[in-house]
């Protein structure tokens, strides 16, 4: 039985099983076609088949799908997110059965959305990638809140603030002595890839203004994660003097690291 954390982000799918951090582009195309030229495009060329549909994913979709896209937004209760999770398990998880924790933005981390995600993931799935068929069984699945969960990595007492700057969302999280504080955790539905011209300074100002509006103080210790954390840290430090990286050099993996820790806490001691 494998315990796995999976963060099916709008830009990249991240997986952590306690040993290795993995990621691949979230792009998925449903317009499968026979290819005459079989050039390799990257390390994540996936020709997938699932439930009667077939298409390309990862680096193959980025290069060869006409309509490759990756849904960005404030919910992951959609079939595309299921494909992302299943591709991750197919490629990188060992064994046929899994207990997983996946992520959902704080703003839509509701009972209803969580149930939808669990319902679409728990059970047996048959998927073929690049001709290799696997039956993937998800026995247990829980849905963690993005951003605020990553705050667990800070391991600090008192108030911990986290800003998770992703491709399509910015998640704000507040923890008090290791416990989530719903009141001061929320999601801004914009990100590093949703703007026509990314001006880091104005984006940092928008991120900070939203936090201050919701009651954060610019004297708070703020931890940054997500792929946008490192490029924007300097600009954000103008507004939050103490802004620091939660997982320097691996900012995009902070959420999935936390999801794995949560999964261990939930599943490791349970008797099957
Ligand atoms: N050096 C960089 N400069 C600019 N942008 C960067 C850099 N490194 C990463 N990014 C951006 O970070 C984003 C990926 O971050 P991350 O993996 O946290 O997003 P995600 O989790 O897939 O998205 P979301 O959380 O919104 O679902 C991409 O939009 C990418 O363009
Ligand atoms: Mg993310």
Give me the strand/helix succession.
EEEEEEHHEHEEEEEEHEHEH
Low-confidence stretches: none
The secondary structure category is alpha+beta
| Sheet of most strands | 9 strands, mixed
List the bound ligands. Answer: adenosine-5'-triphosphate, magnesium ion
Average residue-wise pLDDT: 93
**CATH architectural name of the largest domain:** 2-Layer Sandwich
Task: Estimate what percentage of residues fall within beta strands.
Answer: 25-35%
Please give the CATH class of the largest domain.
Alpha Beta
Q: Name the strands of the widest sheet in spatial order.
A: 3-2-1-7-9-8-5-6-4
DSSP strand count: 15
Might you state the CATH topology name of the largest domain? Answer: Nucleotidyltransferase, domain 5
- Discrete helix count: 6
* Bulk shape: globular
InterPro entries: ALP_N, ATPase_NBD
Protein name: ParM/StbA family protein
Topology:
Elements: E1 2-8, E2 12-16, E3 21-25, E4 28-29, E5 45-50, E6 53-57, H1 58-64, H2 79-92, E7 97-104, H3 111-121, E8 123-129, E9 132-145, E10 159-165, E11 170-176, E12 179-180, E13 186-188, H4 200-213, E14 222-225, H5 229-236, E15 244-245, H6 254-267
Parallel strand pairs: 1-7, 7-9, 10-14, 14-15
Antiparallel strand pairs: 1-2, 2-3, 4-6, 5-6, 5-8, 8-9, 10-11, 11-12, 11-13
Helix pairs in contact: 4-5
Summarize the structure.
With 272 residues, the protein is an alpha+beta fold. The protein is built from six helices and 15 strands. It folds into two domains: 2-146, 2-Layer Sandwich (Nucleotidyltransferase, domain 5); 150-254, ATPase, nucleotide binding domain (Nucleotidyltransferase, domain 5, 2-Layer Sandwich).
């Amino acid at each position: 039985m494998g315990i796995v954390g999976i963060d099916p982000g709008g830009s990249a799918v991240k997986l952590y099983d306690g040993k290795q951090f993995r990621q691949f582009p979230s792009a998925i195309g449903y317009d499968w076609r026979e290819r005459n030229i079989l050039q390799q495009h990257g390390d994540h060329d996936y020709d997938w088949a699932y439930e009667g549909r077939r298409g390309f994913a990862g680096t193959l979709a980025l290069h060869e799908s006409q309509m490759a896209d990756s849904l960005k937004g404030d919910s992951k209760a959609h079939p595309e997110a299921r494909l992302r999770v299943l591709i991750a398990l197919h490629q990188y998880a060992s064994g046929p059965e899994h207990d997983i924790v996946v992520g959902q933005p704080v703003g839509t981390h509701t009972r209803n959305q969580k149930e939808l995600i669990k319902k679409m993931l728990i059970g047996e799935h048959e998927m073929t990638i690049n001709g290799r068929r696997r039956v993937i069984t998800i026995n247990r699945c829980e849905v963690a809140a993005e951003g605020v969960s990553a705050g667990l990595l800070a391991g600090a007492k008192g108030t911990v603030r986290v800003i998770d700057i992703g491709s399509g969302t910015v998640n704000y999280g507040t923890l008090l002595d290791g416990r989530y504080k719903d009141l001061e955790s929320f999601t801004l539905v914009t990100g590093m890839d949703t703007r026509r011209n990314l001006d880091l300074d104005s984006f940092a100002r928008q991120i900070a203004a939203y936090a201050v509006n919701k009651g954060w103080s610019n004297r708070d210790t703020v931890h940054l994660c997500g792929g946008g954390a490192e490029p924007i840290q300097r600009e954000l430090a103008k507004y939050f003097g103490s802004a620091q990286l939660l997982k320097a050099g691996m900012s995009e993996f902070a959420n999935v690291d936390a999801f794995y820790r949560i999964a261990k806490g939930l599943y490791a001691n349970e008797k099957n």
